[in-house]
Amino acid sequence: MKKRIVLLAVLVVVGALLAVYGSTLLGFYRLQRHIDETAQADDADGGPWPRTTDVCMGCHGVKGNSLHDAYPSLAGQPAQYVAAQLHAFAAGQRANQTMGPLATTMSEAEIARVAGYYAKQAPLANRYFKPEARLRAKGEQLVTGGACVACHGARLTGQAQFPRLAGQGYDYLRAQLDAFANGTRSEATGTMQRVAQAMSADDRAAVATYLASLSPVTQ
């Protein structure tokens, strides 16, 4: 009899607690489940902690979509290109005060993992950039009249060892064209040096404007 009374009392207490706190407990359960599922999806996307890509986020943005015009977006960049640039930074073939020291600390496995990670990220449009109409029109003529698509792809979204240009920040694009023109940046074929050196400063500004205004979304 006493056991029944105790059991009944326990059931009453549990029922009362559920009546009062049931929705809260259910909310906590759902929150924990959401956190677990999000963490699992994040691990599947970027790999387990610690991640080399977390260091990149400060300049290149979340999942490689930079919000700063001076820093390139890595999202959607071909893995072969990203890996090649990291090797170039590490070897001193491409100069950058931040990327040089960082790249020298990376193993081949880390380089491959970082390159593969950014290659599969979806790039976002450069929607905050407002192009000057004259420069954009001139840039479009120069780009479509040139052979840019032969290396950088039909939509200028990059392929193999050639980078995505569409939707990159204006400041970054202009800086790279200027660097190719003045010889402070080079690439193995010499194509970009010749192309940039043949352009005037206004031409380079126009090309950068047009490229920055393009959508990098391929579908």
From TrEMBL:
Free-text description of this protein's post-translational modifications in UniProt: Binds 2 heme c groups covalently per subunit.
One Pfam family in the UniProt entry: Cytochrome_CBB3
Keyword Translocase tagged: no
Key word Phosphoprotein present: no
Main location per the UniProt record: periplasm
Domain Cytochrome c: 42-122, 134-215
Residues reported to bind heme c 2: 148, 151-152, 192
Binding site for heme c 1: 56, 59-60, 99
Name of the protein in question: Cytochrome c class I
Organism field: Burkholderia ambifaria MEX-5
